Amino acid sequence: MTAPALEVLRSGLDGRTAAFLESCVRCNLCAETCHVYLTDHEPDSMPAAKVERVARVYRRYHTWAGRMLPGLTGARDLDEQGLTELVDAAFGRCTMCGRCTLHCAIGLDPAAVIALARAMVVAAGRVPRGIQANVAAALETGNSMRIPDTEVRDTIAWLEEDLRATTGDASVRLPVDQPGRRVLYALNPREIKFFPLSISAAGLIFHAARESWTLTSADFDITNYAYFACDRASAGAISRRLLERAEALGVETLVVAECGHGYRSLRWEAPEYLQRALPFRIVSFVELLDQYVAEGRIVLDPSRNPDRVTLHDPCNLVRNGGVIEPQRNVLRRAAREFVEMTPNREHNYCCGGGGGMLAASEYSGRRLAIGRLKADQIRRTGAKVVVTPCHNCIDQLLELNKHYALGVEVRTLGEVVADALVLPGPT
Q1: Residues of CATH 3.40.50 domain(s) within the chain?
Q2: Per-residue pLDDT tens over the stretch 36-46
Q3: Statement: residue 104 has pLDDT above 90
Q4: Cα separation of 119 and 67, whole Å?
Q5: Phi, psi (rounded to 5 degrees) for 211
Q6: Is 354:392 a contact under the CB 8 Å cutoff?
Q7: Quick one: how far is CA 264 from the chain centroid?
Q8: Going along 183-329, which residue ranges are E strands?
Q9: Cβ-based neighbour number of residue 170 at 10 Å
Q10: CATH 3.30.930.10 applies to domain 2-126
């Protein structure tokens, strides 16, 4: 099973990645930036050590010295034991959060090396079962939770009915499969199954903003577990379904619901997967909320969110996606008291559930352990509410809340905004 992995290593080596593998000086300054190492203090969890796992194999097959003098250069064959160690390094000790990249003394990108390692693992058929199961579901059914179109439509119908009853406004709509609208709002399937109030919150906001928008009952899924696996072929196939649905509906803007990796994989990676430009904009719901507030399209009353609120920055939205200030602009208008974690923004720590680790049950104990750093961050703020614009982070923070007895409420940005909305009168 190692031959396909070695072929991926050969085909995936470009000048940039080879430079990363050749240039690490093992200063280990990156260790002090890694949430995994800072909680387990195991040498194998240092970013430099994880890069070295790949570099040893690279040297053995792609350098003269490694071929002739493997013992002297630290090169090693990729045997089954080495592949097992590579799986542990790439999936069990790294969430690909990218924080180490910001702090590398010579500007290397360990996350890019881990991406190569994950692609090798994919080729060897050793992807963690939970991640691969989600990839298979998305490829086979159009979404990672195998939700049929009829269930999507039924769920949205009762949410619409509930919103009308709650607001007393019969004009509230949650439109589905409507062509020619300005905005397509694409969902995380967990919202349909477990967090339907997130959909209601978004619908209420769109109603208040008088937006021209629609949902879709088919190919609605913004999640992309093949992106986590660094399986570019499958990631492209998954992205294509939603993007082609947006094209078919003729929308101007595809709005990605609150999901860090969903935003990154669609906004930044999908054009590369598909090798073409897209005929519409892709924005995060976070960015759209900021626009609505700035333009006065929605009016917020912060007194309706009286408790102290803090913000967790999802790695793929913030550090790797560039959406940094919009959520802060919105929270300052939507909550009476907003406090930052320390550190924050692009320097914030990963919650521990990223990179697909939340779906990899074999690492659940380690995932909760490395989440201690985030739990400590939250506790120091004294906040009663933790907001994060990412459902993957929501799931991890809910578990950390219970495991570390934080006593906080975990919410999406849209839910906080919906609570603060000053609704227009019925139309």
Answers
A1: 297-420
A2: 999 999 999 99
A3: no
A4: 23
A5: -80, 150
A6: yes
A7: 7
A8: 183-186, 213-214, 253-256, 281-284, 308-311
A9: 10
A10: no
